[in-house]
Specification:
With about 190 residues, this protein is α/β, with parallel strands linked by helices. It has 8 helices and 10 strands. Strands 1-2-4-6-7-8-9-10 form an 8-stranded parallel beta barrel, surrounded by 7 helices. The chain has a two-stranded parallel sheet with strand order 3-5. Helix 2 links the parallel strand 1 and strand 2.
């Protein structure tokens, strides 16, 4: 899976199913979502989780920072690449993003946008990591989304506190490529 293929899937189906457990994963696999984020997992289940997602024809993205039993360093990414079928990773850590890029994994850098200094930090870090996409949490105003897209020059995913179709349409209308949500009732919107 390369960035352009992911981009096409997200243009067609911009709601990303974010799953934290087996029940949510089963619902995500049955949803219309083309991309699934695994938000919480354990090292012993990684290969099987990726295999299930790939067997369904969907894109498998792992939140690398939230894997129990796996450290948050470059070797973790080496392990994910060698032992699983995940297409990419999410991380808040620049070193993890860079290592994922070295392995040709899709790299989504997650930021928590809490204030103006966090907004400035995004621009600095993206020059260093060269992430494929940026994910911002929590859901923010359309004005800030437009500003981020202009400054980051990367496709933007917005997540956190996405509750309904109105939230989806607001983020997409402001220029986001996609939204990620654990709210299964809107995965097929």
């Amino acid at each position: 899976m390369n960035f352009h293929e992911l981009y096409q899937k997200l243009e067609f189906s911009p709601v990303i199913a974010a799953a934290k457990n087996e029940v949510e994963l089963a619902a995500a696999l049955d949803s219309e979502a083309e991309v699934i984020f695994i938000l919480q997992s354990h090292i012993m289940e990684l290969a099987e989780l990726a295999k299930k997602i790939k067997a369904s024809g969907k894109v498998a993205i792992l939140h690398a920072d939230l894997v129990k039993g796996l450290s948050s360093d470059e070797k973790a990414i080496d392990y994910i690449k060698q032992t699983t079928l995940f297409d990419g990773i999410i991380s808040t850590k620049p070193t993890i993003i860079r290592q994922a890029k070295k392995h040709q994994l899709l790299a989504i850098q997650r930021f928590f946008l809490l204030d103006s200094s966090a907004l400035e930090n995004i621009n600095r870090q993206l020059k260093y990591t060269e992430a494929d996409l940026v994910e911002i949490l929590p859901n923010i105003s359309p004005k800030i989304i437009k500003e981020l897209i202009t400054h980051a020059r990367k496709p933007l995913i917005v997540g956190g506190l996405i509750r309904d179709k109105e939230d989806i349409m607001g983020a997409l209308g402001a220029g986001c490529l996609a939204i990620s949500t654990t709210e299964s009732s809107i995965w097929s919107v």
